Amino acid sequence: MQHDITKLLEVSRRYGSDARYVLLGGGNTSLKIDDVMYVKASGHALANIDASGFVAMSLPRLEAIWNKTYPEDPTQREKEVLADMMASRSDGETARPSVEALLHAIIPFRYVVHLHPAIVNGLTCSQSGKTAAARLFPEALWIPLVNPGYILAKTVRDAQAEYKKKNAKDASLILLQNHGVFVAANTIQEIDQCYKDIMDILQRSIVRKPIFTVVKPNAAHVALVQKAMQTYYGGKQPYPIIANRELSTRLSNLESFASISSSYTPDHIVYSGFAPLWVDKTVFFAKDTVSVLIELFKNFEIEHGVPAKIIAVQETAVFAINEAALLLFLDTVKVAAFTESFGGPRFMDANQINFIRNWEVESYRANMVAK
Question: What stretches of the chain adopt beta strand conformation (E)?
Answer without folding.
Answer: 28-33, 36-40, 54-58, 111-115, 141-143, 173-176, 180-185, 241-242, 277-279, 310-313, 317-320
